[in-house]
Carboxylic ester hydrolase (Xylaria hypoxylon), 365 residues
Amino acid sequence: MYTLRSLLLTGLSLCAVEAAPRNRNGGIGGGRGAASQRLTAQDQADQIAQGVSAATDGSTILDATAQVNGQDVRFKVSAPADQFLMDTGIDGSAQATGAVGTLGLNVLLHGDGGQSFFDFPNQAVQNNFAGVAILAPDPNLFWGGGSGLERTDGVAHAQIVNDLVKDILPQVLAFDADSVSFTGVSGGSLLLSGFFLPAFMQNFASPAAGVAARARPRSAFARATNSTGQKASQVLLNCGALAPQVDVSADAAAALANTRIHFQSTQAELAELQESIPAAIVAYEQVVSDAGLAVQQIAALQTVDNSPDGGHCEFDELDFVSGVQLMADSFAAVVQGGDGVLAGTNVNVLNPVPGNEQLVFSGAS
């Protein structure tokens, strides 16, 4: 059973939420300051009220909580007010229950501690994609639970993401269910690549034309074909990736053969990610190769870069937060058919995976 509730925004400060993406040892997740020794990151997040606010582009943000698979899961949706369902009670909402809209979705999973959920870097409508962010249902706000590369709740959290997007969001917003893409940040990228993509990508992308795979009944949520052929789903994996931690089904493999994936890192990435990201790149290349794609096709579908001379998630070579924002601003350029140049720079990150699997790093954060 799925239920939806929202609270009025009271303007509480983000400073109550742990912002550091790393622990004292430089790994993913972990350490807390003095204030957070008294409260978990989830407790601190609960102190920040939910409700309705304005996005940076003037559209409307709904911050709400739904119960999914027995868990309270907080999420944000940013879109023009008239695209929200009237049941939400948002001023200007104009869509009836069951309405289908023209906007796609860019669903973001934050890094450890939840910083990017509250920053909501993908909030502005970009290239006709509305922004969505989901908060990890974990005391530490770690996607997949656990710590470091060991994401012990990865299976359950991947299921929650799938079910929230498929079953809850249509109760909130009128959108095109055939245009749903995903962005990961650090730990969120670990959840996407390690658990979500191999288990659920078939729910968001139909098989690539010509790829042999067992057919399954197509739901209303399966990506449709059109006169110009099938569109690829898009996945942007920022500062983190895991090889699949669960079996990749034939259905998921066929869908991944029609999924645009970009792996983005930096020169001074965290040491453990310097090992896991190349391993993930090799694994996902192998998945689509086994599904029948030729090298040239893979090169067009999967790309990689670690050229920015920064630390973990510092894609602008300055800072975690501004670096993540840069990639959000560059989503269309990087994975939606653009020129691959990061916003406001001359840095082109579209290097084909074939031949560039083994990234060379200059140091470690």
